[in-house]
Amino acid sequence: MANPPLSDAETVDHGRRGALTCMAWAGTGLVWTLAAGVPLTTGLVGGPAQAAAPAGLTFAQISDSHVGFDKPANPDALATLREAVAGIRTLPTRPAFILHTGDISHLSHDDQFDAADQVLKELGLPIFFVPGEHDVLDDGGGAAYLARYGKGPQGAARGAGWYSFDQAGIHFVALVNVVNLKAGGLGNLGEDQLAWLAADLQGRSDSTPVVVFAHIPLWTVYPAWGWGTDDGARALSLLRRFGSVTVLNGHIHQILQKVEGNVTFHTARSTAFPQPAPGSAPSPGPMKVPADKLRTVLGVTSVAWRPNAGPLAVIDATLA
Fold first, then answer.
1. What is the mean pLDDT of residues 303-313?
2. At CA 210, angle to CA 208 and CA 211, rounded to 5?
């Protein structure tokens, strides 16, 4: 599939000072670098991966913007999204594109999607989306999301908005696991999507680096809070033959990493508000922290890949 065209959105230089502020505030930014098919992370601000600009492919991940959220945990989620966008714009290596791993809006309202679109447009980059459960709360069960974001590159999306594309020799797979949630809020892919995934991967070389992105973790983080995907193991069984698989998600608003064979899992911070560590509170949900600490628990992620140079570099940076 051909690479998607760049957006014609205007570019804005907010300066390094703005980037630092953004990273501190949003709590984390993650920069992913794929090197010889292996993922590595580094922070968006500072850190060795940033100091050495990768020669391969670099892209960035934004997650859980929750535009429209205005409670004490963060009274202005749109402003912190804007800070994250400003930080990405000042990266020394311009990302090729952005992955947004869901919960663009807080309640799937048109005005929330409109506001998010206006801020994200400032990136001037192609953006690939998957929905979060907060993006499919409309009466149409996600119709509003699909109309705006769910077509995929060149209209390739199927079903509830899953699709794939290829860039720089890497196969990217966007999965939707927020429709038809299971008991306790566990994610679900469903038979149609799993059949599509099997067909999509069929015939691809085992040496092809694969990056999968979804909203809810495909692996089981904490099922009592719905932090996992009920049939995620079936998807992972289709991916295990590949030499390098990187799975990116959001939903839990904090960094967790796990390596299982050739599969690396990474959850990204939110740009809106933090959530408690698994099992450390009576329930998940927005966690209020002192105002001067908020930007230390929010952020974005950058990922870079260098041919023949090892794993993907994944960089988490806060807005502080």
1. 72
2. 160
